[in-house]
Amino acid sequence: ERSTKTPGVLQLDKETAYLKEIDVLKLKLAEKATMEAKVKKVCDFCQEDHLNGHCTPKGNTEEANYA
After folding, report:
1. Residue 42: its pLDDT value, please?
2. Does a structural domain hold residue 32?
3. What's the whole-model pTM score?
4. Structural domain count of the chain
5. Which of 15, 16, 46, 47 is deepest in the core (most CB within 10 A)?
């Protein structure tokens, strides 16, 4: 049986090709996790730098303003 070889293309057996594909997918997942870790979390309600539901209404703080 004769096969045509394409110049510049490495011929791999299926097992090696699958292992390389798995390595590429692992790398992509690691990159995605790194990118997600860099995303700044912002409250959906007030757009401040805290988790949703942890808003402090204006005027309801621990500090009191005295005149």
Report:
1. 82
2. yes
3. 0.44
4. 1
5. 46
Q: What is the pLDDT of residue 24?
A: 97
pLDDT single digits (tens) 4-54: 777 877 777 899 999 999 999 999 999 998 887 777 778 888 888 887 878
* Calpha distance 51→41 (Å, rounded): 7
Q: Which two tokens stand for residue 10?
A: 């490495």
Q: Which two tokens stand for residue 17?
A: 């090709």
DSSP, res 54? -
Residue 18 maps to a domain: yes
Residue 37, domain extent: 12-57
Q: Which of 20, 48, 37 is nearest to 57 (CA)?
A: 48
